Amino acid sequence: MKKKVFVFFPDGVGLRNFAFTDFKTIGEKIGFDITYWNNTVFSLKDNLGFKEIKIEDHTAHPLLPIYSRARKHAELNVSRDKFNDNVYPTYKFPFNYNRLKSIFKSLYAKWLIGLYSSEKGVFKLRQKINKLERSTSKYKYCKSQLEIHKPDLVFCTTQRATQSISALLAAKDLGIPTIAFVYSWDNVPKAMQVVDTDYYFVWSDLMKQQVLQYYPFVKEEQVIVTGTPQFEPHYNTSLLQTKEAFFKEFDLDINKKYICYSGDDETTSPLDQYYLEDLANAVRSLNEKGENLGIIYRKCPVDFTSRYDAVIEINKDIIKVLNPIWKQVGAQWNQVLPTPKDFKMLYNVCEHSEFVTNVCSSTVFDFVAHNKPCIYYNYEQPQLKKGIRDIGQNYKYVHFRSMPSKEAAIFCTDKKDLEGLIQQILENKLSNVEEGLKWFETVVGKAPTKASENIWKAIENCLKD
């Protein structure tokens, strides 16, 4: 008899990895009965024809946001003290004191942080959060769904969504094995593990070491290295278009060489538009010296600002906007969902651009998968002032310590150097691809094409335990 697996989407971030890749097809070939347990507004049944069970009750305990924030800050305080490292406080967002309600929430959270900033305290906070979520109507609702449909296992597509806590608790309380997939390369050191599950699937040996380092209550046998489906499409050559076809579809100039500018979200890079402007100025200068270059601007899918508009308008002869093919189904950042068509676009942007430039984005891995270099901007803009976040702190984060060498990306540390770096890359005198691929293997794992298959095999093994 086929084992029934619930693939659980607490929010939309997992759709890219687990709905729009071959993940489901591979699982069915192995012999699993797959149902998508869907907490998002995106209908997998209507849009993709998948078997799904919708979670209609989204009730969280009113105190959950306060306790979750306190847990994160307490964990970061523990890491700061445990590892004697001041990088951890930089992961915190400032408290809000604008309104009476905000003042109460902030003061309550700070009181909890003061009370629970120890390993034992963090554990107690997690227990308290679980107790709060077990008292919600959503917990009872999800428990009822599980009792009716009786899955053999629940696979949660991200470890970072508070919307998953009550559902996973319901599964655990019914004796159903639970797995959480660690969603992103920077998540573990940032205290973004909000769920406690029976197993944790991670990208690489590095990520496994981090989970065990930051969460001493997790046992080694609970953490399984599988890889991530995130990069599998880059090895799917059926997505490849000819340069002529791709350029025609997106109205690009076939005679130009294009540099991709990958935009960032406003939190990570609040002055991002000025780096695009610097690139445009460098490209214009090189074109005046005989080059024929253009820029493909691909925005961050969850950036809703108009901050780039003026730069794009002034440089419309150079910059071509190719927006990600994502669908906005709500106002929150995690309600902007990718579409399968975006895989094809991103594949061909990587394939037909000369290289990519950005501020500290994981697109470095997308491009090195296509043997294309990456320039990281790492200099301050003159518009930087008090209250605006300096992008330089991004490169001090723990996940950048995984670089095998400083040559794993090309760092532009002075605006005056940008034009020369571009010239050297175009002349094949400068590249980070060799070291970048080593970094890719460290972060993503040794078998980037086998992640979906590895996940299903690991699920199979978990069901045997």
Automatic annotation (TrEMBL):
The record's listing under InterPro entries reads:
TagF_C (IPR043148)
Q: Which GO terms describe its molecular function?
A: transferase activity
Q: Which SUPFAM superfamilies match?
A: UDP-Glycosyltransferase/glycogen phosphorylase
Name the UniProt key words of this record, in alphabetical order.
Answer: Transferase
Q: What is this protein called?
A: CDP-Glycerol:Poly(Glycerophosphate) glycerophosphotransferase
Species of the source: Flaviramulus basaltis
Mind giving the lineage of the organism this protein is from? Bacteria, Pseudomonadati, Bacteroidota, Flavobacteriia, Flavobacteriales
